[in-house]
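A.,

Following up on our hallway conversation. Structure tokens first:
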């Protein structure tokens, strides 16, 4: 093959490749942005074997937006922070009523351009645990303090109401299972007030949060 024929063959090969390549791939960075990203499903068997947990698909069909979430380092949760929703007094115990409350929390966070609900777990007045944001992602519950921090919220306003005994019992059990799963040390269980300028989780809940650090 002559040099000229070789050059012509190479030009024809490159032209064929260009014609076969989608235009989006020619723009730097776009090919990754155009590829769908799927939120991983978290293995919660360590938790569901210890207690009942309503998984996310049981209360909402709204999918998280992984592009707005920060991937968590596996097994590197070192602290847990407790919250209250802090708006209305909530004493709902029926599942449909609780789901409406969960929808309200999720909708509020999405309206603030969060990629998903900010808390990893939610506890209702009846003491049920509901899965929120996947543990595969850092939460969005304490400004500037979300890395390595599991977020748990109790539905209700604990400046105005007292938590129910089922809520407190479930909170204690949930924190116990999580801290032993991730090796969270004593003294690393917080109320939101410990990490930010807020009244959260409320004067009627905060003493219960403090007592969690006294448990082995």
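Then the amino acids I'd put at each of the 216 positions:
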């Amino acid at each position: 093959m002559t040099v000229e024929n070789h050059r012509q063959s190479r030009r024809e090969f490159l032209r064929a490749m260009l014609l076969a390549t989608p235009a989006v791939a020619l723009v730097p960075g776009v090919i990754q942005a155009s590829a769908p990203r799927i939120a991983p499903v978290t293995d919660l068997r360590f938790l569901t074997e210890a207690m009942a947990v309503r998984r996310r698909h049981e209360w909402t069909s709204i999918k998280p937006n992984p592009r707005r979430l920060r991937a968590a380092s596996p097994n590197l949760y070192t602290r847990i922070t407790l919250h209250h929703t802090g708006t209305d007094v909530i004493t709902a115990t029926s599942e449909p009523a609780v789901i409406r409350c969960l929808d309200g929390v999720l909708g509020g966070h999405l309206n603030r351009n969060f990629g998903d609900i900010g808390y990893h777990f939610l506890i209702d007045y009846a003491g049920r645990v509901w899965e929120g944001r996947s543990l595969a992602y850092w939460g969005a519950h304490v400004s500037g303090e979300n890395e390595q921090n599991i977020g748990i919220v109790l539905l209700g306003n604990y400046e105005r109401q007292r938590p129910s005994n089922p809520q407190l019992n479930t909170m204690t059990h949930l924190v116990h299972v999580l801290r032993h799963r991730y090796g969270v040390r004593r003294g690393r269980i917080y109320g939101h007030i410990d990490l930010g300028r807020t009244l959260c989780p409320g004067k009627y809940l905060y003493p219960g949060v403090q007592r969690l650090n006294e448990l082995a």
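Helices lie at 3-20, 30-34, 45-48, 95-111, 165-182, 206-212. Curious whether your intuition agrees with the design.

B.
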